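User: Fold this; tokens only.

Assistant: Input:
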Amino acid sequence: MDRIGLIPPAEDDVSVRLHRIGQVVAIGALLCAAVIVGSTAVIWSNDQLIHRWVAWPSPLGMRPITITLGARMIGMLLALVGAIPVLYALVQLSRLFSAFAGGHVFEDDNAARIRGIGLALIVKAVLSPPVQILTTLNLTLNNPPDARTIGFEIEAGHLMTVLGGLALIAFATVMRDATRLSQENREIV
């Protein structure tokens, strides 16, 4: 028998879908975190990848860079420091969707996780310029004195990341209020 579009799906269908989506996103977020850490090591171990993925899109552009073992290690460390907020956000996203998969939607922990993701996005945007400055300095520090560079860019993407973080913090506040109302409704019934 066909369902009419205005009738909401049965609770079991919603639970099954939420469980499936929750599992996929939870696992996917952790895989993304692993890829970020793994790709950092791969990029900083290969000269061509450093030129393509680090130097070229940065303020260095086509300027000469000097890649030494020390520059690689410091570069990898800087990249990981810059990735910490993203890794934190991905872990929180995984925990959030694991809770959703378990049927735990309107809970204070979930509101806190959403807020944490928002804060991590803001920290990422604030951390990007200093990491970029230190990375450009690191890659040109061994150049002759007239070929050393310190540079950074503030892009529209940084502003969008901050706005996205603020939106998630606002959403977390709404989620916390919804959680409180949901608990009050359960106590009344």
